[in-house]
Structures are given as C-alpha cells and as structure tokens.
Amino acid sequence: MTDPILENLNPKQLQAVKTTEGYVRVIAGAGSGKTKALTSRFAYIVDRLGINSSNILCVTFTNKAAQEMKKRVKALIGDLYDVSFITTYHGFCVRFLREEINKIHYPKNFIILDAEDQKTILRDVFTELDINSKNLTFKQVLRFISKQKSTSDYLGYMIENKSFTPDEKDSLSSQVYQKYLDKQKRNYALDFDDLIHFTAFILDSNPDVLAKWQEMMHYIQVDEAQDSSDSQFHLVEMLSRVHQNLFLVGDPDQTIYEWRGAKPEYLVEFDRMFPDTKTIIMNQNYRSTPNILKVGNHIIKNNKVRVDKDMVTENPEGVEVVHFHGKNDFEETIWVASEIKEILKTENASYSDITILYRSNHLSRNIEQALIKENIPYAIFGGVRFFERKEIKDVLSFLRLIVQGDNFSFLRMFNHPSRGLGKKFLERLSFLAAEQNLSLLDALQRNIEDKELNKKGASDFLFLVSELKKEAAQNSISDLVKIILDKSGLSELYRKDGDEDRLENIKELVSSMMLLEKENNAPVNIVEYLQEIALYTDLDKDTENQDKVRLMTIHISKGLEFPYVFLCGFTEGVLPSALSIKERRKRAIEEERRLMYVAVTRAEKRFYMTDSEGFNFTTGLNKYPSRFLFEIKEEFYVRKGKLSPEILQAAQSSAAASKNSEDTAFKQGDFVMHPVWNKGRIESVDLEKNQYIVHFFEMDKEKPIDFAFRFLTAVSDAQEDPASPADLLELHDSLKNTPDPFEDNDSPQDILDKEGNSSRIFGQSADSEKKWPE
C-alpha cells in the first residue's frame, strides 16, 4: 500500500520530512521540489507524530504561496485540520495583533495601510511641508521610513509618547517621517513594517505573552528563508526558543530582495548560529535540462554569500542555450518574435508555454511593439501594458486632443491637472455641445462667454490647446511631448506626486519617439503615430487563462517555471542594473547575479538571452552585452547574430573594469596617504554609502572618502602612529557596541564579528524596503 505523504519523495526530500526535531536547514535549489518537501513535512508532523496542526507555524512571503501550501497539506491529510498557521509573516502578525494589540492600548480594529494608502499620507505631508519630488521622491521617503523603523526607537514615540528624535543628517526626510508617524498615530494605522515591529515589541515587552506564544508554537517552518529580514528572523528565532524546533528551507542563490531588507546570511550562517543544526542539501532539479543548468551553475559560482552546490538533473540533455545579439532594439525583438513562431511550428507548443523576462518594466515597450507587429498575442503579468499606463495615456490624450479634438481626450484632460472645473461646468458644456452638435472642445470655444463656462480654468485650457496646436506645426513629435509636459503642468504634477516610475516611463516614451524619428530620417506624422499607437492600447484585456505569451520582470517570475524562456535586454547597465551597482556596489553585483540565476532556472526546455547595440538612455552610454555573459564559457551556449570584434572587445574591457571596481581597495585599519591631508587610517568601511571613514592624523579629524576617489594610496604603518591607546580603545568600544538585532549573544552579527568581518553585513541596508504580500 502506498503512503500518500512519503511517496514520490527522493532521499533528500525524505530526510527533510523525517528530520523533525531541533534546528534544521534545507538548502533547496531551483526546481528541487521545495514546496513538496515542506508540505509533506507539515503533514508528517500532524498525521504521523500526532501534533495538533494549530501548534505548527509555517511562514512564507506571499499569500499565493501560503494558499498553495494549504491546498497541498489538505490533499495529504484532509480538510478537518486547522491550517490557519500556514500563512505569510504579515498574516501571522495580523492574527497575533488582533489578539494582543490591546497590550499597547491600540484598538483591535486597527487600520492596515497598503502601498497606495502610504502614498496618500505622503501626498498630504508633501502639501503641508510645501515640497515635491525635486526635494524628495515617494520611493526615497518610503525607503527612509522603512530604514528608520528598523533602526530607531520609533515605537517609543508611537506607543509610549516619547519625544521624536530627528535624524540630523537628513532633516527634511525626518520632518516627513515625523508627520507620517503622527498621521499613523492619529488613525491607529499600521503599515507592513509596523506589523512585524509591533508584534516583536509586544513579545519583547510582555514576558507572559511571549511565554504563551512560545509554548504554543511547538514547530516552526520558514519557507524562502533566504528572504528573511532582521526583524522577521528575530521573530521566528524568538518564538522557537522554548521547543527549539526551527526548520528553515530556501536557496541563498535566489535572494533577490536584499534591497527590501532580505539577509541571505541568516540561512548561510544558520549552522554557525546554532551548532547542532542539521543541514540537508536538495540539489536534484526536476525542472530544467542539463544544458540550462550548466549555464545557471556556472554563473552563480561567482557569488561569495552562498552555500556551495551544483544543481543536477536526470532530464534529457535538451537543446543548447542561445545568445542572440542584434544591431538595434528592433532587430533584437523581431528576432524574439520570429523565434516564438518557430517554437510554435516545430515544438507543438502554445503561446502560453512561452515567457519573456526583463529586468525593468519599461523594457516591455519594444517587446510589445514587436509582438503586435507579428500578430503574437501576449499578456503583461504583474504590470500594466506600457501604452496603457496612466501617464502614457495622459500624454497621448493631449496629442490626440491637439490634432483630433475628440471628446474622450477632452474628458480625460480638461481638468487634469486640476483647473477647478467641476461637475456643473461639465454638465452645462455637455448640454451645449449636444444642442449645437459640436465636440466638447468646439462647444467650449464657441460658448466661453456662457455664465457657467466663463471660468479662468476654462480660458487657460483653451489658450493651452491653441498654443500646443501652434507648437505641433513647428516641432517634432518628441519635442512636442516635452512641450506638452511642461506647459500643461503634467510634468510638475508627476514630480509633486513623487512617483518617479511615471517620469521614467515618460522618458522611455520620448526615447521611443526619438528613435522612430531617427529610423524614418524624417519628422513623424502625429496622426499616423496615434493611429499606430491605437493598436497598442485597444487590445483585449481579458487575459485570464488565455493562450498568450507572458511578459514579466524577473522578480515576478521567481517561484514560477515555463517551458520556453527569453531573457531580453541582457545589457550592461540593465542587468546588472547600473543604478543598483551605484547604490550598493558589491552587494548589488551579487544580487544582480542571483537575478540572472533566477531567470535561467525558470526555463524547462529552452533558454534564450538577447541584447542589442545602440544607445542606452538610462546610462547615457553605448550598449554592450551584460558582464554576466562573459562569466559563461562559450561552450555552454550558441551565439546568433553578429557580435563585432570591436563590440566584443569593448564589452569585455567594460566587464573587466567593472569587476576590478567591485572590491574595496582598503579595509578597516589600513593606513593611507591623501594628496592634501596626508596620512590617515581607515576607521570603517561603509558599504551602504560606498565610502571610507578616514581619520587624518595631522588635522585630527575624520573625513568620508568615496570608494571611487583615485588618489588615496596605501602606506606602511611603520611610521609613528599619532593615535593614542585611548583612541584605539574608544574605537574598539564603538565597534563592539554596534546595535544588535538580538538580545542574546548567539546572533549572526556576533558570529561574524568574531570572524573579523564587518558588522554592517547585518545592518539594515540603505535600500531596504518592505516586501509587500500579494
């Protein structure tokens, strides 16, 4: 008789399921059946050990993953068991707070803020402080808030009415932060960061509550453990201290959320935090062909923060991985479209078997246009089609209003940005337009003296349309869009809104128009352009369960698998992201490499990498293939499309130069010489700000010196060191007292400090940002 819980498990999965006691770490590579092992273990503990399911906490990161696990567990043990503790971190915290938040005098019906709610608060704050995105963007502020909430005693201010301590280094952000907290307090509102922090605060402050929940949680399982932040890991570690049954499963090679605060070191260093840890490595891949795995294994070996493993598979060899290099964006995406058609013809495949991945959403534009040109149906996953995004439709509506004067465009733009033209204005205008058989725009022009219509906002709008019509006759379409943005107030509106993604998408639209003008070698006819764009905006939106090619970012693809995968825009500065590297240097390089690894390991049968030549408007440089291409042995893939010796040499030189700049030239304690301030000592290395703090002896001051400064040279420490023993003791004490996310002495930070590494590795990243549940 077969055992439904243990059947079809390989030896490593079986070991993970049956190892139920103590601290257990499972390194589960891509496609290795992680969810199967996790859910079978939950079912085994309930059905074979007799543990009540309400005493098992199993946390993951998305509602989708939690629902899938619940479904699988119920299939194994039936519907009679309580599986409500198979949940997300935030789901657990909400359940905990509904029961315990009265301990801090908050009502149990507290409000939970989502991302849009946060932006609504920030709009109010920006208005009150009379600031806009020229001063700060929403993204910057939300990152600052998230960082402050993980490193400062903000809970004292919110819960215990302690005074607010501003961050003097960033006073404007601190002002926004304080007002944001005030609005939260007034409405008893918690954002996603608060859910974790409030839970930890109550547990830390109430020994009886802590004891109650520790006693309840006999077994704790953590899915995708590589994505746990300081506060998340602290929560599960704290809850597991009584029964000491903590099971972590994940893959450090798939950590792609460090910028949101994920710390892969918790999984990598788990066996050093808890010396009795049992480690199981699940490296049998059931998803991909050996040819695809060779590429993935080869790339990820270059990372340092990982547990060494090679994924293996018993699948057939399969076809070779392909790299295509195009002469321009158009050639790259048209090749992808033609290859999709070839797959459909030769592989008996469906459109829905094919997925196109990219690093950033704005890269979808070229791909969408190529697919439409070739009549290939597609759906954007986790994003909005480029030409359906609000800011793009705003600009296109103004263009259409200028040349066509249609009612749809008029209705969208006559009071956007706000001109004080309300409901009564529109009712009167619509009545007159119908009575006189005119368009709304023409009716307004003819009846501007009407009592209900004669308003300053209406006159201003008519003047604006008139001016833009004149500009349209004299300017190229790309220049006209810039003029529209400026004169209409849209550009200022988007800046005040603080949502910089809108501005990035507008830049991409203008770039596409400039390229179109260049390709045509003549001005673009606006009417023809709008007619062509109409094809891109009037597509069927019902994409559920339809046979369409899927487009998505690599981040969204994590945890999914597809028979055929194209990675487009495989260009230096895009993947790896130039912005990420600038902000986080070496840490970013490792994460970008993990993104590449995630993209590769989504593919089951075929994997393609594509890039093209041209100009990158984001980096302001000519385009070269990604440095990661040159980390793959050429024997592991086939190249299609001509990569000229000049491009190849320039790309390899760029990759080599970038690699050399990844490492910091100096470490803490090194002696250096500065051309102006002479000799100094590196007091600390700040990987977040990409700078050294150097104490210069002659001036007896510390200065922040950027990693990129070329004239800092190493010198011997043989000369007499002006620093006194007292100075050294003070420095030692300062380093020793670096804030620790744990109260005991068994934290990963302590372990790393003993090994002589920077304690900042467990400090909160400057780019940390919340991981939103689905």
From TrEMBL:
Stretch list, region Disordered: 731-774
Annotated ATP binding sites: 28-35
One Pfam family from the record: UvrD_C
A GO term, aspect molecular function: helicase activity
Residue ranges occupied by any UvrD-like helicase ATP-binding domain in the UniProt entry: 7-289
Keywords per UniProt: ATP-binding, DNA-binding, Helicase, Hydrolase, Isomerase, Nucleotide-binding
EC identifiers of the protein: 5.6.2.4
Superkingdom assignment: Bacteria
Transmembrane segments: none
Record domain UvrD-like helicase C-terminal: where: 290-559
Cross-referenced CDD domains: DEXQc_UvrD (cd17932), SF1_C_UvrD (cd18807)
InterPro entries linked: DExx_box_DNA_helicase_dom_sf, DNA_helicase_UvrD-like_C, DNA_helicase_UvrD/REP, P-loop_NTPase, UvrD-like_ATP-bd
Family, similarity comment: Belongs to the helicase family. UvrD subfamily.
Protein name: DNA 3'-5' helicase
